[in-house]
């Protein structure tokens, strides 16, 4: 897997009727996230990052070499302005979604700390319905079964 493959997977999962999902590549502004989406009339941005494995030691900070200060600032400014701005991190088979506030700390935290501040965590493959739910869109499409 790679960041490019993660991009393709997210785009494939979110694409459908009444939806627009676009991979963004631009040199006009630094830090613009990888994906723009319009789902069920709601728009947002997703910056995605990929690491092959978690650090071996639980006390080791999970560093993201390619998560730049410009990307952090872009997410922060978009979130402050009322926009939806997310960081999606895949490490091995785990996926963690961070809102724009929590995304500021990513790259400076341990695995356990990342799990605590993430809006949503998938320990395994990323799937459509939970991703839509986590992004806050199309809420009627997710059926939640309670355990008794």
Please name the defining characteristics of this protein.
alpha+beta; 25% strand; Trna Endonuclease, Chain: A, domain 1; six-stranded mixed beta sheet; 148 residues; single chain
Protein described:
By secondary structure, the protein is an alpha+beta fold. The protein has a single domain, classed as Trna Endonuclease, Chain: A, domain 1, CATH 3.40.1350. It has 4 helices and 6 strands, in the order H-E-E-E-H-E-E-H-E-H. Strands 1-2-3-4-5-6 form a 6-stranded mixed β-sheet, sandwiched between helices. The radius of gyration is 15 Å and the shape is globular.
- Number of beta strands: 6
Report helical residue fraction. Answer: 25-40%
CATH architectural group? 3-Layer(aba) Sandwich
Mean pLDDT over all positions: 86
The class by helix and strand makeup works out as alpha+beta
Strand order of the largest sheet: 1-2-3-4-5-6
Compute the CA-based radius of gyration. 15 Å
CATH class reads: Alpha Beta
The major β-sheet equals:
6 strands, mixed
List the helices and strands and how they pair.
Layout: H1 3-14, E1 19-23, E2 35-39, E3 42-51, H2 69-80, E4 85-91, E5 94-99, H3 111-117, E6 120-123, H4 128-135
Parallel strand pairs: 3-4
Antiparallel strand pairs: 1-2, 2-3, 4-5, 5-6
Summarize the structure.
The protein has 148 residues and is α+β, with helices and mostly antiparallel strands. 26% of the residues lie in helices and 25% in strands.
